[in-house]
Amino acid sequence: MSLSLPEDTSLPRGAALHPVRVPGSKSVTNRALLLAAVAPGRSRFRGGLEAEDTRWMRRALAGLGLEVQEEEGTWTIAGGGRPRAAAPLWLGASGTTLRFLLPWLALKAEGPVRLEGDPRLFERPLGPLLAPLEALGATWEPDAKGAWLRPAARAPERLDLAVDARLSSQFLTGLALTAAALPGGGTLHWAEVASPSYLALTTQWLRRFGCEARLEPGRWDIPGGALAPRDLDLPGDWSGAAAFLAAAAVTGRSLRLAPLDPEDAQGDRTMVAILEAGGCRARWTGTQELELAGPLQRGLDWDLTDCPDLGPVLAALTALAPGPSELRGLHTLPLKECDRLDASAELVRWLGGSAEVIGGHTLRVQPGPRPGPRPPFNPRNDHRMAFAAAVGGLRCGGEVLDPHCVAKTFPDFWDVWRGMLGC
User: pTM of this prediction?
Assistant: First the structure.
């Protein structure tokens, strides 16, 4: 199945796009869900992301014996107990669900846990997370359909671990969330970390649950025994907002988005600074409403080490920019739901530009003429590649295969996209 991308050329330049309400954040929602699971007591959330990745997390928690209630946009989780799986846990393609759950289950589960999911989930790196857990006595037994996790015979009072976090900051986040549930907490050390902004996001949410974690370069101190249940409104998703912000930059029109938190630790909040550096104008019109106006006036030159998930949308934008661009810090993109670095280069070419991948971490883009008829773009079952194709389609039209892959984090993306355009 494919979906035709509407070109925006019929819309007057400079006019306003229809306001957009962005969904909740996957990164925040899954952190909050696990913190609610390990904090003793009953937590309530509003504004959580309703999508595949967060659904797998909620179902996994319920499958581990926790009380999880969902009613009229409010989720209630009764936490603090030891997890026990009566049946296999299906995790879909959710890397955050797997990597956040693993340390907790390895140290706290009552009995073995069977984990299953999409094949790509278990192809993505896990070794640097499994190594310290196995050193603590857990065992990991992978097979063709998933793996058995057998927990350590006794959970330590405290963690003091050196972690290889070069491939993913999620390894550190999973360990930090579990350390906060131990009596003595823990200290994590590393020499280099991918996407370090996500550690700041985790620290922000540990603190919101009562754990005053201290994050320093190469070191994370997590107090134990301090977690408490919370009643919270979760913020909107800067990652989900990125394609819409790019749409304002492409079309030269203004757009308002809400609810977004200007103080949010989400790394993808950098999208605003990137677009301002390219000549767009941004201002806050309310406490949680952002207005951004295009057009993009020059190519982009940016290091995305702190926010690599912006890579695909920015690749599409650079293909339509007034000049050449260079995006750096993309070394983790080949390890995502698909090889996003290769797919982003393919997307640029699909949009008529030229793309060069340099050293496995840099994408150099030269815009080209508007492309003619061409085959549909294949997002490789990756939601962020589909979002990026939508941005490119604003000027170049075309078709995208498998449009429903957006359900991973933004199920009604296409409806919201057409609503933004007034279609």
Answer: 0.89
